[in-house]
Amino acid sequence: MAASTLAEVAKLAGVSPATASRVLNGSSRKPGEDIAERVRQAAESLGYVPNAQAQALAKSSTGLIGLVVHDIADPYFSAIARGVQQVAREQHRMVLLATTGGTPVDEREAVAAFAARRADSIVIAGTRSTRTEDAAANLELAAELDRYCRNGGQVAVVGQPIVGAQETDGYHVVTIPNIALAEKLATSLAGLHDGPFVIIAGPAGLATSDERIEGFQRGLAKASLSPAEVIRAGFNREGGFEAGKELASRIQPRQSGEPALRHCIFAANDVMAIGAAASLRENGLRIPRDVAIAGFDDIETLRDFRPSLSTVRLPLEEIGSLATLSTVEHHRETSGQITGQVILRRSTEPS
Amino acid sequence: MAASTLAEVAKLAGVSPATASRVLNGSSRKPGEDIAERVRQAAESLGYVPNAQAQALAKSSTGLIGLVVHDIADPYFSAIARGVQQVAREQHRMVLLATTGGTPVDEREAVAAFAARRADSIVIAGTRSTRTEDAAANLELAAELDRYCRNGGQVAVVGQPIVGAQETDGYHVVTIPNIALAEKLATSLAGLHDGPFVIIAGPAGLATSDERIEGFQRGLAKASLSPAEVIRAGFNREGGFEAGKELASRIQPRQSGEPALRHCIFAANDVMAIGAAASLRENGLRIPRDVAIAGFDDIETLRDFRPSLSTVRLPLEEIGSLATLSTVEHHRETSGQITGQVILRRSTEPS
DNA sequence: TTGCAGCGGGAATGCGCTTTCCCAAATTCC
DNA sequence: GGAATTTGGGAAAGCGCATTCCCGCTGCAA
Fold it and tell me: What is the distance between the alpha carbons of residues A258 and B161, in angstroms, rounded to a whole number?
């Protein structure tokens, strides 16, 4: 048995479908109270549930927000998702979720699927790729988004602009000031450490990772320190772990009384930092005694980590909310100004 | 400018809409290759994107999977979400996300919204509430689900059955053996500790929490130990933190040489355990020296926590996948047998 | 050659709803 | 009291697509 329809309700109430529609689904025209009541009764007794698909088709607005992330189980993205979800609830919309693993090809596919579902807006989170082998896919993604916008869609991208995207209206960017913040972090750390700096980052071509490297190096340069060595690995916990392992093989635990030559590691995000810390520890290095380490993002779940991790706080939830709001008509003027702040904790304490 | 339609494509290709439909959206009837090519060309040049709403309306199947969770940023739920998402991708479906904060009222609302969107299936994660003040809402939720199932919907609920739900077909439960696993954990811990046991749990009436308490107490009883005291708090990190604080005020750090009277805490989930550990530490208690602690879930992000947390591993991702699969026609026979395992780590090491 | 099955394409209907347009009755105004 | 207006309801035309039914055509056996 299929769900009952508006027409059935109307018949039971002895009115026309038009009238039933008007009373049940907020129209500007309000039928008389007696009739309205009869219709509501009928709807109730039939267990009527309006067919959102049909409604969407008829009034061409779906109330859908498409969210694309790399991995919903990554706390970075789930925090953003929470922000998106929150706005969605307030606006009485629903969010459609797509995970892509970060490849532009899949992102394009996700956008196409959202477009097909006629989502009112699309929020894209996750770093852009500037790798040459992704160039073609990026272009296609940009084209897909462009088409979507031309058809009246709203898109917000979190982090940095899509490579090659047009400046159509309906296209919003919530920029994350990775460079500036990483620079600040470097400046802060430079005041505490003079040991060699090392950056554990994602593969070359991940915009977020690259920006954070750039900012950090810039900060070191301004402090007249030589540039940090950069170790590349996966942009996740495993990558951090691997990089940490490699690093550990080169670093000796400090002998007591020995002059301080302590490495200071900047991991391009918190989960990498945690991974690195884990492998350093496994190799007998202690934090912050033998090596200092800082991350980026200030992931909530990781705040109880010991030693507490120095990092850069990003208002992830707010970022998600802001991105979503910027796609909503009413708040179109929302500025995408995101601020973060350096948080120094125990993991980088001077010895 | 609205997106172009099938009719426009058909006209441009000089064929009927029927034919265009057949070539573009996998029908059983395949038009001739020459015509097909012409249609594809036309579609390409117009940037045609099929309207999934209209398709859904016409063939009454949306390819939508509704997922309801308490909080998408909670790693427990985001892990499950990943599993759901994965199956969704394989099946070429999309997931609709709703977060409820755990109240049956909002869950009902979410289910109604999914039903309105004609989602093919609904996955509900998160503990049931058995509180009397939620009884009415639970019943309404059950009724909503029942109606949804009668209309041909598939629902899977993770954890425990919905209170008062009918045994309609289309209604599946992926049971999490909280009681048995908590009992196992208690048994394991009873072999290592004889100090007083304390349970830090969520509010009374949260099924998952209550089940874990029950199992744990049962395990203690079987080991001929007296029941653990139960401290109630929020079923999240904050709750754990609060409970830990209260507990800390009663526990003294062990003086060296003093006979062992070490509390062993079982927190009803990992994030509570982490919260509790944080406040215990703030109060000068060291783990596992002064107090032992175990959690439940084995949240991935928390595995690098130090001291490493004893817990019960739950295959959360698999749970999400299984639940989703059970709602899909082809795999309807999927059994909902979930197994977990006790993992003893350093946080409960005997002194 | 005729008859029939089989195939490729088009016309038309309907999915469930919103909304414009239309019409009758009720109301207002002079 | 009649005309002008407002009000409240219904008829009907889509929204964009899938699909059933139908029709003309070809290929084959009789």
Answer: 62
